[in-house]
Each structure stands twice: as structure tokens, then as C-alpha cells.
Amino acid sequence: MEVNLESLIKDLAVKAGSFVKSKSNDLSYRQIMKRGSTDVSRRIDLEVEDMIIKDIEKEGLRAVISTEERGVVKVGDGDPEYAFVVDPLDGSLNFVLGIPFYSISIAAGKYGNPLRFSDLTDGVVYYVAKDVLYYGGSGGALSSGGVMILATLVRILIGP
């Protein structure tokens, strides 16, 4: 199944960002749900991640999703066609503290076995508080305002 990754990940990030905005004053979303050795997962992290995973699944895609909170999740039957890397709320401590500097980050591409960074062809970083979406992909790198930015900046934002 062929999918427009640019459109999909932009939609996923904006939808997730809208959810985050709607919960910014709800203290229950700041609650720590899981503790790791170096990090914690808050309710907001887990629910945003669930939303993104379910929306990818609703697309009917066969995919592997590498997530910050849950690790690797497989959706769809059969061998994966696509790969996604998701940080559901980068800067969740800022969210908790009311500091308006946090984002939704999603990268995607065709699945390769083994998966390599070079397989990820499209990425978005949605700066929630400013309602700005940065996109980098085969078509270049643009912000939601249509201003060209450096593709290397997007690469830095979505990871090495």
C-alpha cells in the first residue's frame, strides 16, 4: 500500500499537538506513570504515543514504530512496509512546568531490514506552543509558514 508520508506525518503531529494543547491545564496529564533508570513516562507522553500508534494503524499500514515510551511496536499483518520513529512529547518536563518549549517529533520512511537512519525519508517537528510545523523530506525542508530552512536542522531535530 502506497502512502503519502509527508501528509500523514504532518497530520499526525498536528493532531497530537492539538491534544497536548487541550491538556495543558489538566494536572492529571502531568502524572508519572512509569519510571525508567534515567527517565520517566508521564500520562501525556503515553496517551500521545497511543494516539499516534492508533492513527498509523487506522491507515491500514504494515509498519514498525520505534517509540520513546514503549520501544518497538509492530502494526498490521505481515512484513512491515514502513518505519516510523516517534517522540510523542519531546520536552515533557517543560510541559509539566508550564514552559512553552516542547514538540512532537515523527520521522518515517520505507522499512528496510535492518532499519537504517537513511531509510527515514520524511520528518516533522511540531512546536506545539507556537503552532509551527517543520518538515524535512525528499522535497526539501519547510516550516509551516512556507519558509525554507536547512535540511540539516531538521535532521538535528529528529535525531542522528
Give a quick precis of the structure.
The chain has 160 residues and is of the alpha+beta class.
Outline the structure in words:
- With 160 residues, the protein is of the alpha+beta class.
- The protein has helices spanning 5-22, 43-58, 92-97, 151-158; strands at 32-35, 40-42, 63-67, 71-75, 82-90, 103-110, 120-127, 132-137, 140-143.
- The protein has a single domain, classed as Fructose-1,6-Bisphosphatase, Chain A, domain 1 (2-Layer Sandwich), CATH 3.30.540.
- Helices cover 30% and strands 32% of the residues.
- The strands form two sheets. The chain has a seven-stranded mixed sheet with strand order 4-3-5-6-7-8-9, with helices on both faces. A two-stranded antiparallel ribbon has the order 1-2.
- Helix 1 (5-22) runs antiparallel to helix 2.
- The chain starts with a helix and ends with a helix.
CATH class bucket: Alpha Beta
Structural domain tally: 1
Indicate the CATH architecture: 2-Layer Sandwich
Helix content: 25-40%
CATH superfamily: Fructose-1,6-Bisphosphatase, subunit A, domain 1
Radius of gyration using CA atoms only: 15 Å
Q: Write down the overall mean pLDDT.
A: 84
